[in-house]
Amino acid sequence: LYDNGDYYTWSVRASDDSGSTYGNWTETRIVNISSEIIVSMPNDGINFGELTIDESKNTTTGNPNPFTLQNDGNCLLNVTINASQLFNTQPSTSDYYKYKIDNKTGEQGSFDWLLSATTWQQMPIGASPEIAIADLNWSDSTDICEIDLLVTAPHTEQPGSRNTTVYLVASLSE
User: Fold this and answer.
1) Residue 64: is the preceding peptide bond cis (ω within 30°)?
2) Which of 1, 11, 31, 167 is most deeply packed, by most CB within 10 A?
3) What was the pLDDT predicted at 139?
4) CA atoms of 118 and 137, how far apart (whole Å)
């Protein structure tokens, strides 16, 4: 990719049918292929409903479904994650709000399993994003992954609706 300082040079010359006579080489041309960082979220919302004190819910059972992230570009991507505060009594990173990255059925191998957050991690709250997905592929058969969430209502939390925003930032991995 040109983003990494790489490029192709190209020139051509003609020959007769026998291949014994050649014309002059054309002027050398440079071809640049730049990265396209494009992602989409086929599933971009999760609703756990209201939880009772100390109740936990997660998306690994498919009820509700996890987020899905798809690489629609032409290069490997790293994706960072962080979120806004979910619970009033938990203003920072805690065990009450977690995430993990997983394969989407039929799309196994879409990302680097060993370098990605594939076990439950505390969701970073605020301005400290961390790499969650390493080397998300762009090939159609392996370009989607799941982002599972696990939430537990703290015993100190008052009942009521809660909202959070999950921030995902994709960047060139290569």
Assistant:
1) yes
2) 1
3) 94
4) 16
Distances (CA, A) of 96 to 26, 53, 113: 65, 11, 24
Percentage above 90 pLDDT, the chain:
80
Q: Over 90: is that where the pLDDT of 82 sits?
A: yes
Measuring CA to CA, how many Å separate 29 from each of 13, 25, 84?
13, 11, 49
Q: What are the beta bridge partners of residue 5?
A: none
DSSP state of 32: -
Distance CA 81, CA 167 (A): 6
Please give the Cα distance from 130 to 79 (Å, whole number): 8
- The residue assigned the tokens 């020959």 is 15
Both tokens assigned to 93: 């990173």
Q: Is 102 exposed, middle or buried (0-12, 13-18, 19+ CB in 10 A)?
A: middle
Q: Which amino acid is at 91?
A: P
- Judge whether 77 and 71 are in contact, CB under 8 Å: yes
